[in-house]
Amino acid sequence: MKLFDVYPLYNVTPVSAKGIVVTDDKGQKYLDFYGGHAVISIGHSHPHYVRRIKEQLDHIGFYSNAVQNPLQLELAAKIGELSGCEDYNLFLCNSGAEANENALKLASFHNGKTRVIAFKNGFHGRTSAAVATTDNEKINAPLNKQQKTTILPFDDIDAFKAEIVKDDVCSVIIETIQGVGGLDEPSAEFFKNVAELCKENGVVLIADEVQSGYGRSGKFFAFQHYNIKPDIITIAKGMGNGFPVGGVLIQEEIKASFGLLGTTFGGNHLACAASLAVLEVIHDEQLIKNAANLYTYFVEKAAEIPAVKRVKGKGLMLGLEFDFEVAELRKKLIHNQFMFTGGAKDKHVLRVLPALNITKENLDTFFTALKAEL
Fold first, then answer.
1. What is the DSSP letter of 239?
2. Taking every pair of C-alpha atoms in the chain, what is the biggest distance, in angstroms?
3. In sequence order, what DSSP letters do the residues of 156-224 get, joined into one string?
């Protein structure tokens, strides 16, 4: 049997990793400034993370959600404590797509409506409703296009007002900082107006924090930069530092009932141990503060490079915009400088999504390499 060939692959085979250093099968070391799409939040093989998972394996790795699992309660309490979102309830799942799928479903259950408003260049996953709200025709099959979705531009409040007042809208889903799209953000005024209009019209506001959450923006959630309060928050990528886990934070006015949502693997013992380890490291090592501080330093260093048009994003969810397409630059950084970076739907943007515990010295190394290739 062969693999279903859907990934264009770089000719690199990692076999071990520690911190931001990834070592391949030939012994070559690479610096990881991408973290596998912002997944590696506390560094590869962090000792506390490894210890937590090993200890959990010695007890129990998995059982279904048909039994009590105190680790889930501990995880919910810890997320609430560190995020300031204690007045939400947590549903655990396995991925960002699954989190968004459940969020959209919950919104429709809550108000009985069917249409979703999403935004241009957004990415919310590849499952049925989530992919229908994802602005990429190439990954929307005819089956998915049956979903009722309206895609609007950022910052066009008049277009938004015209749609939100129609009586069929169940939810608005928005990335506070776009990931795949290229680190675009709407204005603070637009966020405020969207939140107010959703409330006025009985529409559920879903903040997709799958990539921007868990401290990556310099706050626990990126929407907290704008002083709004979504009805539902979705999380995943950095949550498990590589272990597959996702979650949905749900305001208490959206009521649960037995059988409303479900998952076989979501919230299993290993997933909870991984997620708790991440939160413990974020807290103990003050990684949210580190992300905020390094953003300022990153902007200063980027200003030294004339080819950089602007820095996009916040915290350590960053993009460097050039006036040329960056695919070739990414290849040079991998093959000449031995560094992983990311691309975006906007082909002029180089994405930088390192672990939240990187240092100024790591960024100095990155910019030295970038200058060498420019």
1. G
2. 60
3. -HHHHHHHHTSTTEEEEEEESS-TTTTS----HHHHHHHHHHHHHTT-EEEEE-TTTTTTTTSSSSGGG
The conformation of residue 146, written as its DSSP 8-state character, comes to: G
Measured between alpha carbons, how far is 338 from 78 in angstroms, rounded to an integer? 37
- What's 121's domain CATH number? 3.40.640.10
Residues 138 and 208 in one domain: yes
Indicate whether 352 and 238 sit together in one domain.
Answer: no
Residues 158 and 262 in one domain: yes
State the number of CA atoms in the 13 A half-sphere of 344 facing the CB: 30
Going 185 to 189 to 193 to 195, the CA torsion angle's sign is: positive
Give the pairing of strands 29-32 and 339-340: parallel
Q: Which candidate, 150, 152, 155, 156, places its Cα nearest to that of 120?
A: 152
* Of 101, 42, 52, nearest in space to 269 by CA: 52
Predicted TM-score (pTM) of this structure: 0.97
Asked whether residue 316 is assigned to any structural domain, the reply reads yes
Supply the CATH number for residue 35's domain: 3.90.1150.10
* Nearest Cα residue to 134 out of 190, 175, 169, 93: 175
Pairing state of beta strands 29-32 and 232-235?
unpaired
Q: pLDDT for 308-367, tens place per residue?
A: 999 999 999 999 999 999 999 999 999 999 999 999 999 999 999 999 999 999 999 999
d(CA 207, CA 225): 13
Query: Which residue, 359, 303, 365, is CA-closest to 339?
Result: 365
Task: Give the tens place of pLDDT for each residue, 11-55.
Answer: 999 999 999 999 999 999 999 999 999 999 999 999 999 999 999
Whether residue 63 is found in the same domain as residue 95 = yes
Q: Note down the domain range covering 360.
A: 14-45+309-373
**182 band by pLDDT with thresholds 50, 70 and 90:** very high
**Length of the chain measured in residues:** 374
Report CA dihedral (171, 175, 181, 183) to the nearest 10 degrees: 160
Structural domain tally of the chain?
Answer: 2
Whether residue 300 is contained in a domain is answered as no
